[in-house]
Design a protein that fits this description.
By secondary structure, the protein is mainly alpha-helical. The protein contains 13 helices and five strands. The chain folds into two domains: 212 residues, 3-Layer(aba) Sandwich (Rossmann fold); 77 residues, Tyrosyl-Transfer RNA Synthetase, CATH 1.10.240.10. The longest helix is centred in the C-terminal third of the chain and has 30 residues.
């Protein structure tokens, strides 16, 4: 059997190029080596009510279409809604019975919310527990995360160890966090790329909007003939991803002079749209077929739930409720 890779994404925002190069592209590349469980974390989206019910439903379909458009194969990857596996919330309750409030108060997401004086509901407070249930339910071997999410895998391991110790049975495997730093790609304003800052370029936004953002990429005041350091230029950072076929030529023109930022942006926009065209064409076709997208999620949910049902049968037996 292939090792299990698990990853979830909340349906609270549209995917952008940072998401693609930082994670989605890798999922596509790894789906032959791993058995991927990629889920739409719709219950996690309720933690701070970041989206309306209508938005959650729509963004769930958009994320599904996006995953398929970038190359995830639903025959190889189990793509599903978190809410289609009710065993996860059952396991969440069992884990809540093993964990203490003082332990959860050390969670980064909770401390960050408190520091920012946000209202903290129990969904946010217990967010790491539900995540642990997601991770441990499928005997995940690897969980790709950014550094800021590594603690969640550590909490999952702690809960697995505690459960196994309390009930004297090796029910849960210990997952391994794989730190994915992603491509070092700042937003078009030069700041850290963030949906909350509004400085992202979405994969499937209108072409005119993408062009406007590309043309607004921050630069210095050097002229066409001035020599420029490509490693210090934000446009060139994007060229590394979208202009690979001519990167040496662009680097030479930067270092020797002879290219202005307007021309560089024009080249970047053309190359970006050429790179994204196949996935954009597929996405815009898929997003019109809601029936198919729901079928993909339902089929994935059935496959995921089959695994979850077997796990929960073992858990219930061990804790004495069946």
């Amino acid at each position: 059997m292939k090792p299990i890779l698990l990853s979830g994404i909340k349906p609270t925002a549209r995917v952008h190029i940072g998401n693609y190069f930082g994670a989605m592209k890798r999922f596509v590349e790894m789906q032959s080596e791993f058995q991927n469980f990629n889920f739409i974390a719709d219950y996690h989206a309720l933690n701070q009510m970041l989206a309306t019910p209508q938005e959650i439903k729509q963004l769930t379909l958009e994320l599904t279409a996006a995953y398929l458009a970038v190359g995830l194969d639903p025959k190889k990857t189990i793509l599903f809604r978190q809410s289609d596996v009710p065993e996860v919330t059952e396991l969440n309750w069992i884990f809540n019975s093993l964990i203490t409030p003082s332990y959860l108060q050390s969670a980064h997401a909770y401390k960050d919310a408190v520091a920012k004086k946000k209202d903290v509901n129990m969904g946010l407070f217990c967010y790491p527990v539900l995540m642990a249930a997601d991770i441990l339910m499928y005997d995940s071997n690897v969980v790709p995360v950014g550094k800021d999410q590594q603690q969640h895998v550590e909490i999952a391991c702690d809960l697995a160890k505690k459960f196994n110790h309390v009930y004297k049975k090796e029910v849960f495997k210990l997952p391994k966090a794989v730190i994915w730093e992603g491509e070092s790609l700042p937003g078009f304003d030069g700041e850290k790329m963030s949906k909350s800052k509004g400085n992202v370029i979405e994969l499937f936004e209108a072409e005119e909007s993408i062009k406007k953002k590309v043309m607004s990429i921050k630069t210095d005041s050097k002229g066409v003939q001035d020599k420029k350091d490509p490693e210090a230029d934000l446009i060139f950072a994007y060229h590394k991803l979208f202009s690979a076929q001519m990167i040496d030529e662009l680097r030479s023109r930067y270092e020797n002079g002879g290219i202005g930022y307007k021309e560089s942006k024009d080249i970047l926009f053309a190359n970006m749209m050429a790179y994204l065209k196949p996935m954009r064409d597929k996405y815009f076709k898929l997003i019109k077929d809601e029936k198919y997208l729901n079928k993909v999620l339902a089929d994935g949910g059935k496959r995921a739930r089959k695994v979850a049902e077997a796990k929960m049968t073992a858990v219930r037996k061990v804790i004495g409720v069946r």
